[in-house]
Amino acid sequence: MQKLYVILLLILAGTSSFAQERSFELWNKNQVEIAPWEKISITVAEKMHYSPKRNTLDLKYGEIFIGHQVLNWLEYGAGFRVSSTNLQIGEWLQENRTMVYADFGKDLKNFEFDLYNRFEYRIYKSLNNYFRYRHSLRMKFPAITDWGLQFYLQEEAFIKLNGEGTHLARFYSGLTAFEKEHIEIKIYYALQKRQVLNHWLSGDIVGLNLSFEI
Predict the structure, then answer these.
(1) Which pTM was predicted?
(2) Neighbour-count burial for 40-50, b at 16+ CB within 10 Å, e otherwise
(3) 11-39: per-residue pLDDT in tens?
(4) Which of 79, 107, 121, 168 is most buried, judged by most C-beta within 10 A?
(5) 192 and 203 Cβ atoms separated by less than 8 Å
(6) Domain at 1-8+25-213: CATH architecture
(7) How far apart are CA 110 and CA 171, in angstroms?
(8) Looking at 89-198, which runs of residues are DSSP E strands?
C-alpha cells in the first residue's frame, strides 16, 4: 500500500501546475461484489470526491447494482444510486438515479477492450428530472507482472437525452496496481471536460479504486 501512495504523490506532483489554474479533485471509490448465484452478481459501492482547494467533499454517493453475465463477452443489469453534490459549503443537492446497463468485452492479442453503455434517469427534488446516456470505452494493455500490474486508457461521455446533448466527458490514464482473485486496486489520472453555460471547463482528477469480491 505504501508504494501506491508514492505513485499517487508522483501523479499529484505532475498535475500540480494544472491544479493551480483549474479545478482539481481527489476521488476514492470502494466496492464489494458478491455472486449469490451462478452468473449473477450484486455490487455495492460508495464514492467520494474531495476538493483540496475547498478542503471539503464535493460529492458523495452510494449505489447498488445487480448484474447478469449472460455470456463471457456480455453483461447486463440494473442499479440505483443516491448521490449528494456540495453546491456550497453546507448546501447539498440530493439526486436519486435509476440505471440500466449493457457491457461488452473482447480480448485481442493480450489486449482487453470493454464497451460500457448505461441509461440513467436522474431525479431531483429542486431541479428538472431527465434521462441521460453514458458511453465508455476502455483498453487494457497486457499485464506486466504476475500480480496483475496493468496499464489502461479509457474515455467516457455523458449525453443528456432532453435535447442538450453531451455535457460531460473524461479521459483516463490508469494503472491496475494489483489484481488477484478477490481484490483489485486501481489508481488513475483523468482530464475532465464539463459544459457550464455553453462554456467547456477543464478539471484534473486523481483517483484510487478498491474492489473486493466475496
Answers:
(1) 0.87
(2) ebbbebebebb
(3) 554 444 444 468 999 999 999 999 999 99
(4) 79
(5) yes
(6) Beta Barrel (2.40)
(7) 22
(8) 91-108, 111-124, 130-140, 150-160, 165-179, 183-196
